[in-house]
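Milestone M4 deliverable, item 7.
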Amino acid sequence: MPRRMRCAGVYCLLFDTITGHSTGMRECTMLRFKLRETMLSPFPCPEDMDPTLHRLLIRRGIDSAQAARRFLEPDAEQLSDPFLLNDMAASVDSIRSALERAEPICVYGDYDVDGVSASAILADHLRSMGGQVEVYIPSRHREGYGLNEAAVRQIGERTKLLITVDCGVTNLDEVALARSLGMDVIVTDHHRPGDKLPDCPTVDPLLNGYPFPYLCGAGVAFRLVEALSGRAAALEYVDIAALATVADVVSLTGENRVIVRLGLERMNTHPRPAFRALVEVAGLRGRALNTGNIAFQFAPRLNAGGRMGSAMRSHELLLMRTIEEAMPVAEELERENQQRREEEKRILDEAEAMIAEYPFPERRSLVLKGESWNPGIIGLAAGRLAEKYYYPTILLSASDGVLTGSCRSIPGVDIHAALTAVKHHFVRYGGHRQAAGLTMDAGEYEGFCRDIEAWLSANVPADAWIPEKEYDLDVSFDHLTESFVQSLRAIEPTGYGNPAPVFRAQPHVESERAIGANGAHLSLMLSNCGAQRRGVFFGAGHLHGALGDAIDMLYTPKINVFNGRTSVETELKALSDGGAAEAFRTKMSNEAVLQHDFLTDILYNGTIDFYYPDAPEISIEALREQLAANVQGTLIVAADLGQALALVEALGDVPLDTAAGAAHLDARCYNTLWAYPVGRPAGRWRSVVSAGLPAHGALYANAAIHAPSPLWQQAPELDELRQIFMAARPLMRGVERWYTLEQLLALLKRDTGFDTVKCLMGLFILNEAELIAFDPRRACGVQQGAPVLQPGSKKKGDPTDTKLYRGLMALKG
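Output delivered:
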């Protein structure tokens, strides 16, 4: 039996725009599939390399066979000389001098995973060299990020050498204070420096042309240990450096790739007690650890220490010598991580309630503030909102007249550059291109919102806000052999800067079913190029029964092992029915239901006014210019799919989201073409353009394309209704067999000579008059139940008395 119900669009992880709660996936034909760019010339494929792996490496920036070998076989020999780092020699001299004089040393860190890892690496090694070492990690809640005056004065009472890790490069005043108190200072950091450097040795991979500028704070500490004592000594800490490198979301290329590959090997073969304890509380016993485990199991638990209490517990856990010491601390962090989840959900729920009324078309950033939000958790919530809404997101926690903010961005927006442009509003700020933090007085809020909006509007093109997903290559299913998928493991470790391979294909959907608890996920059987593969789309169970026969999808191949048998499967990342025009074409099989619901809505539920006294005519050319100037804010409403398709063709290649029937329009108000609109549109639209649609109680346009829909002209007159009824009578008695709505309408068209739209509208009117019983939902396969067409409850009746007939005649004119 053919699969009937279709629902077009591109599906991605977004929020439901009506409730504001996560629904997993929703339609959004604005999402773009983007081939990962490369400016490199291809190098010859080595004889022992799979050609598709070769193409993939070129997409990853590999430009020679030698570079490919280095990438696929990373080892410690690929690490640069640590003395190439700015001021490394001076820093090593200062540390050795302090050790020789037995001077007390303070390692000043940060409260995130990178900070506690960096402090663990450097402090433990300095102690192994005989140093008297104190570790100071500031409170996320009381002190905030970086050096602060009170802490510097306190440390100065007992320390001669102050070494920062993962912070300090912008703390010029605090470094000057430390030196005035008699301390020597060394700054090790990886954050972006300001216009001036601290007046002390400053080790930062962003300075002095270091060959690999993407080290994290712990990576810098790791290189400092190598400079002090050699590579073998540094490799004793490569597992901790790997943990921080993944957790801090720095590029997993170059030196970081080496660190993470070697660190994972050590975690899996000789795990320190901290990692053994984390494996236990995270339920990972018996599994080979990978970057995903670090990012999603280890890092949240270690971060929970600083978010919910003191980060010193996470620092101490990393250095514990026995599992008996480590387990109680890991279990405590596990409890706090659960509390963190609950707190994060509360913040998200409150933020979503605010978003319901957010004026997206008027804003380039999503800025929200809450009175009781935990400053240690708002960064996580901001990241989730930025991903789901595809908007630079800034969440601010208000307390005692001060706003503490955490920012997460989207690929096309450098949030650090945006903050720098409006830094006069801040007490302090810092961060990276995609993530940053800030502190400002509450009185600066309005000016900050105004100025950052102005900067974003002036400096970032509007299409940066159109969601996109990158993929590496077009790979058909016939190439997905076990040996090929096994070869892709050479790309690991994967993560930021070196994502897991994503391919594109256009398979046919053979079958589908919802799986998992409450049908949360979607399982598909797909065919492409003569090969069948199972596909799993996590979080997309609600799409069961809503896909077309053919899809355009992004996926990552996986090897599945079940009952001792292995098979290649696909894990879907996004899917599409193929653009705005195809989105409407795939709805054709469901058009009867759309027509019925649309006519019912405007003729029964609203007051019709065919004229738009305040809606001037807009030409296609002017509308195209309006859509091209801004990707958000314009809603175009059309009375039928044919008209919608004609508009898509006339408007050309301008990006358009699509909707039909009682659709949940995207709260971000991307320019949308809505066919057969039902109900009042949600969102803060700047402009509503009517294309042949009458005004009614739920929808009034402020511009119109004067192209009356043929739908109204097909409304049947009384004599035509009689002919449709007479043609339907033998079909109700089973004189001729039919199985689909298309077959039914074809028989009515044959016997009446009328267009199928006229026949369908006639069935609607006769159904309301109770002369027949007709259910378009069962006709389209949307619902199961009694026969689609059968005799009505009345022997006689006047269809001209129905509200549907009278309304259609009024529109027909």
